[in-house]
Amino acid sequence: MRFVLAIVAFVLAAVMIVLGIAQRTILLEPAFSSLTSTATGETLYTVIDPSALAASPGSQTINVRGEGPIFLAYGRSEDVAAWIGDDAYATVALSEKTGELTSTVTAAVEPDTDDDSSDEPVAADAAEPLIVNPAGSDLWLEEVSDTDSLTTTQTLPEGISVLVASDGVEPAPANIRLSWASDNSTPWAGPLLAGGALLLLFGLVLYLLALLHLRRSRRPRRNVPRGPRLPRLPRAPRPKAIKASQITSSRRGIARRTAILPMILVSGLALSGCSADLWPDFSATTTETATPTPTPVSTDSVEAAAELAPPAVTVPQLEIIMGEISLLTADADATLNADTLATRFTGPALEQRLANYAIRAVDATVSPLLALPGAPLTFTLPQQTNSWPRVVMTVIQNETDAEIPPTAIILQQESPRANYLIEYAFQLEPAARVPEVAPALIGAPAIAPDNKLLLLPPNELAAAYADVLLQGAASPSVDLFEDEVDAFRAQFDASRADRQATLPATASIEFGTAAGDGSTVALATNDSGSIVAVSVNETEIVKPINDGATVSPSGAASKALSGISSSSKGILNTYSDQLLFYVPTAGSSDKIILLGFAQGLTQSAELP
């Protein structure tokens, strides 16, 4: 009976082990599913549509092959389409009928030549050069490049498209392959292999017990009656000892090897079953049981959130942008390279930094402006928009020196193929209270410059504050502004008093303030107020009052910019002020608060 049970155990073990091995070999499903496409035409750009990326669940492995440089980037589908604009491009999408990738070409949109409003030709040097290479655009969430072949694995959600190009001059690579990792785990292979190994051990034990029982049953019986005593026979000669090398085989050796082979096989099968792919996963069931019931969400809230425009940038995207700008600014500040600086600065921020370059080029003892840190971003407020121009505000803390106040930056992007430029850069007031704003994932809508729902329309803010600086308590707008935390106004009053005190008796001084040329930028806050950035220009005219008297520029900066040591006509100094305010909603009892500022001498010249 033991032999029968052992044979049954061996047979069942063999069946289970074979099934377990078959699940990991001949019955194993592919680890990847893939689709290929060859882009038609010779367009400069190829767009991989979200439908192609979502053809299978999981991460997408994108392989692009061609000759020469290969560029690949991904971003929001609207941003990719906006960057391509009217240029021709190929689209790789998923066909709902065949389930395969298809390629279609969208022809370029020709400019309208029927418009007779501008008959005069535009000078070639007056037009800005057309950007054709997508590399380095601020619209991309991430970009990679290689030569001849490029492979990258991403997990791209819905609404994201991939742009493939060469260098914007040569046609885009045509061969595109998309792959997705498949779940080819075999959760029952482990139990089958382990169960088969246990049955094999069980059968082996039964087999050994059966052999032992059989051997015992063949031994002589101990109760055999004694017969007559036989005479003692002579002792046989003792055989010679046999050396170990003379032994060729024995039944005991064969039996040992027979027993060792199943043990090796069982050990190998047990070790092969350690992979997590070979066993059932019960964690999903446990997690599902422990997950609480989600709170119902109003349908109106979902529809309202879906109608909101997306933020202009994401935080990781802005971190990349600010990192690049920080490195570029550091290089331009060190080499006084105005051309390099102009690729990332504009407006009052550019004007103030270029003036510092001009001063330092004449007088190296003048200190440079504070370095622009690239990280960390402690505050990010992008504009909610699908169009251009776009605005983003961020605050950066200097990691090397905690005593330096955080720097607030206002960036603007004029068009899809233009990069973000810094228009304002302020040092935040230590005592200023920054109002609550929407998270960076949502962004804030831009406020129109003539919005009447604020305590003061944004386009009137610069002129009103300039009047307060000049007239002080006599200004009709003085009650609109908070005075206790306004360090800039105190600094302005102290500087004007000091300038008047040090002025020689043979000269007169005249101060003036007016709204600057910087654009008005306003982003909404959670309390229906707004964060507003404006610029104000200060002027200082010093003239001699006696015939034959002269006046001299005050300070090294004024001397370096004006290029004169004295003048009998007079000297005009112009200061540019970058100002950041919080403006409460109309009817509020709160006042307008200055959040940050930056000031610098931008012009110094002799009066005509």
TrEMBL record:
It comes from Cryobacterium levicorallinum. Residues 330-603 form the DUF8094 domain. The keyword Membrane applies. The keyword rRNA processing does not apply. Residues 220-250 are annotated as: Disordered. This is DUF8094 domain-containing protein. It comes from the Bacteria. Keywords: Membrane, Transmembrane, Transmembrane helix. The chain crosses the membrane at residues 188-212, 259-279.
